[in-house]
Amino acid sequence: xxxxxxxxxxxxxxxxxxxxxxxxxxxxxxxxxxxxxxxxxxxxxxxxxxxxxxxxxxxxxxxxxxxxxxxxxxxxxxxxxxxxxxxxxxxxxxxxxxxxxxxxxxxxxxxxxxxxxxxxxxxxxxxxxxxxxxxxxxxxxxxxxxxxxxxxxxxxxxxxxxxxxxxxxxxxxxxxxxxxxxxxxxxxxxxxxxxxxxxxxxxxxxxxxxxxxxxxxxxxxxxxxxxxxxxxxxxxxxxxxxxxxxxxxxxxxxxxxxxxxxxxxxxxxxxxxxxxxxxxxxxxxxxxxxxxxxxxxxxxxxxxxxxxxxxxxxxxxxxxxxxxxxxxxxxxxxxxxxxxxxxxxxxxxxxxxxxxxxxxxxxxxxxxxxxxxxxxxxxxxxxxxxxxxxxxxxxxxxxxxxxxxxxxxxxxxxxxxxxxxxxxxxxxxxx
Length: 431
Description:
The protein is of the alpha+beta class. The protein folds into two domains: 4-101, Helix Hairpins; 118-429, Bira Bifunctional Protein, Domain 2 (BirA Bifunctional Protein, domain 2, 2-Layer Sandwich), CATH 3.30.930. Helix content is 41%, strand content 21%. The strands form five sheets. It has an eight-stranded mixed sheet. It has a three-stranded antiparallel sheet with strand order 5-7-6. A hairpin with a 5-residue loop joins strand 18 and strand 19 (428-429). The longest helix has 37 residues, at 65-101.
C-alpha cells in the first residue's frame, strides 16, 4: 500500500507512475480530498473533546460545584452526543481512503523504462549461446512422453487440464533440481523455511495478493484459507506485525513449495507442456532489508538466480521490465528468460526478481529499529524465483536432448540426481 505521506508530499510522482502503468491517476486527487477531510474530522473531534474538558474543568474549579454542574452538565451531555458522532467520522473516511489505496499499485522506480507491454522490456544482460542442433530438436512434452517420464494423459484423468505427472527419472530430476536450488540458496546465506501451503485471507492481503488477484487464487472462503500462489506470501508475511532489531537486517529466506494458480487470464496460452500449470513447484527467495540498500540487494538476489542458470549451462537473458509490465507490488523487476529450442527457439520466463520497497511492509506492518529507542521504520521486501522447478526441468530436457531421444544431465546437477543421463528408454543411467 502506498504511503499517504508520499501522496501528500509528491503527488505528481504518484500520478506519473500511474500514467506510466497505463492507469488513470484521478485516484490521487480523490485520496488527497479524503485525506484533507480526514484531518479536518480529527481536528473537529479533538476540538469537541477540548470543549468538554473545559466545561468539566469549570465545574471542578467552581466555588459552587453543584450549581455549576446543574448549569453545565446539559451542555456536556450534548457535547458527548456530538463527540460520539465526530469520533466515528475519521475512521469512516480512512476506510474509504484505504479502500482506494488497496487497489493502487506500487510507485515505479525512476529507472524503470516506460512501455506498455513485454515488447518494451529492455535486455539488461545476456549469458550463453543457444545450442546449434545437428538434428531437429523436440519440445519437452514430446520428449517427456516418448521417454515415459511425463504423463499428461493420466494427469488429465485425475485432475483435468493444466496438470502433469512426473515419473521415474522425471520425478527424480524434479527433486534434484529443488535440492540443487536449496543447496545454492544456503550457500548464498538464505535460511530455509518449511511453510504452510494454506494461508489466511489476511496474510494474502498483507502481501498484496488481495483483492486485486482474488480471481487467480484457489480458496475455501468458508474457512478463510487460500492455497499459496507462491512461497513469497508466507515468507514475506513471516514477520508480519513485528518490529525487528535493525542489526539482523538484511534477512534472507527461501522455501521450496508447491504453488497453485487458476491461470484464469491465460486461456489458450501454453496449453501443452509444463509452462503454465495450475500446480507447480518453485524455490522462492525473499529478502527483508533497508531502504538505502534495497536496490543493491535486488541486484544481489537477481545474481543468485542468474547463477543457477549459469551453473546449469542454460543460455538466458535478464530483462528489465517496462512500466506497463511491472507487477502490482513491485517498484522494479528483472525477469530471467531461459532459451528454449522448441517452437523455433525463443526465450521464456523462468524467474522474476522484484523490489517491492515498503509497499508490502506497510500492509504487513513489518518494521525495524536502527537503535533501541529509535522510531520504527518499514523494511523493504524483495522476492524472486530461484528457480521455478518445472520450467527449469523442461529447459534441461530441451537444451540437453540427444539425437537418440535421451537427455544428458548438466554436470552441476549430477551430484543431486545420482545419474548423468536419461537413456532413450527413459531409464536413469550413471554414464
